[in-house]
Every structure is written in C-alpha cells, then in structure tokens.
Amino acid sequence: MFVAGNWKSNKSFNEAKEFANVMSAMSAMPEGVEVMVAPPTPYLAAMGQLEWPCRLGAQNVSATGPGAQTGEYTAEMLAGCGVQDVIVGHSERRDGHGEDDEAVAEKVNRVLEAGLRVVFCCGESLQDRQTDVHFDKVLRQMGSGILHLPVELLDRVVVAYEPIWAIGTGLTATAEQAQEMHAAIRGWLREAYDESTASRIPLLYGGSCKPGNADELFACADVDGGLIGGAALDPESFRAIVDAAGRVAATRMHVDTNS
Ligand code: 13P
C-alpha cells in the first residue's frame, strides 16, 4: 500500500517543518505501507535534509532539460534535493496551468530518466462522467502518458486515479466507482504490458479521501492506497489514513502468505 500527501500550495515553511517533526515523533509507520509527502517546491531542498518517516515527493517538474529556462526546474535538480517521487499530470496542472497530454508525457519521461518514481495522475470531469465517457477519458490519458514506456520502467510508475469532481469538493467516489475505474486501469495495463506488470503497479485513489472513508476505499481489490489533498495537511488525519492502509496491508500480506 502507498499513501501520498499532496499539500498543493499550502503551509508556511515553518508549518512544513513542524509537520515533519510531528510525523517523526509518531510510532513507526505500519508495515507494508509506503508514505510520501509532496510539500511546496521551495521547501524541498530543506525537507530533503530532514530525518522523517516519509518519502519526499514533488508536485511538479519541468518538461524541459537544463539550460536557459528561467523559472523552470529539472527532474535531476529534484533528485539532487532528495526528492524520490514526482506527481505528474494532476488535473490542477492539466486544467489550471495548460498542461496538455504531450507535456505530461514529456514530464513522465524526464522523471524516469532522472531515476525517480512518477505518480501519474488521471481522472475525468463531472461532465465526462455524466456523458458516460469517463472510462474513455481516463484510459486515453493512460495511453498518452504511459503507453510509450518500455516495460522495465513501469516498476517506477504509480497511477493515481483522481476524479476531478471529487477533488476538494467533499464528494468522494463510492467504493464501487473507485473499484470499477481501478479495475479498468488494471485491465488496460494488463493488455498494454502483461499480468505481472499490471498487478505490481500501485493504483491510488484521490479525491476527498479522509480518515472516515479510507478503510472502505482501500478495501477495494484494485485500490492500493491514496493520493490525499486536504486530509494530508494535518499530521493526525494523515496518519489515520496511513493506518487505514496499514490494516489493508496486513490483510493482503496474510492472504499472500496463505496462498
Ligand atoms: P483532496 O483530498 O483535497 O480532495 O485532494 C485530492 C488531490 O487532488 C490530491 O492530489
């Protein structure tokens, strides 16, 4: 299981460091759960120096390489600051900052070339769902962002399904809605690659996931964790979601050992 916090443009630098302190003072993270936090970009270098029980994520990366690109930052620069995972293709970047499929695919490439892991986001709008094109939309995003990758790079790909209508709205996909989309994504990966690759890639759900609904969402067979926005800002609620993932991880490990 994998639980990732995306802080978006929230928290002062001091609040970010305080969060890391509180996380460090907590009991060990549950077995079988990887935990990642993606703070705002200006904090990454400093947070990469801290000892705390979370992988360090970036919320964005440039599609460009080094050189005369004022204001941009390369995947190698993120790696040099201790970043391990990079979120690419979040709907707030696709829709709010004009990132098209081509730019998203280029960012995926840059992240993987730098040796980092990519958290590739996909998801449909409310209109897509109401007009019943949500599966087409998400699988098309998978095709344009991932399909060009050779299978050996897929070990460093995590997919996050985030229905746009559920992000920051308090509306959550039901467990059934999450599971059916995750199963479709898993099926797409199986066809594009192979069974073992498809079963290894973590599929995260994002969109108003919180302590009160995390158990139900994570219990879905094809949900391997969450990409958490608002509920990742408070260490206690983030930890409660991590613990929900821990309960599911324990069950899955039990099933593995007995099969
Ligand atoms: P919320 O959990 O605030 O809905 O945000 C989800 C998200 O966009 C994470 O990337």
Task: Give a written overview of the molecule.
44% of the residues lie in helices and 14% in strands. It is an alpha/beta fold and 259 residues long. It has a single domain (2-113, 133-258), classed as Alpha-Beta Barrel (TIM Barrel). Helix 5 crosses helix 7 and helix 10 packs parallel to helix 11. The model has no long low-confidence stretch (mean pLDDT 96). Bound molecules: 1,3-dihydroxyacetonephosphate (13P). 1,3-dihydroxyacetonephosphate binds at residues 6, 90, 162, 167-168, 206-209, 227-231.
Distance between the termini: 19 Å
Oligomer: single chain
User: Order of strands in the sheet with the most strands?
Assistant: 1-2-3-4-5-6-7-8
In CATH, the architecture is Alpha-Beta Barrel
Strand tally is 8
Instruction: Indicate how many domains the architecture comprises.
Output: 1
Question: What compounds sit in this structure?
Answer: 1,3-dihydroxyacetonephosphate
| Beta strand % | 5-15%
Q: Which homologous superfamily in CATH is the superfamily?
A: Aldolase class I
Give a short account of the largest sheet: 8 strands, parallel, barrel
Name the poorly predicted regions: none
Tell me the Rg in angstroms.
Answer: 17 Å
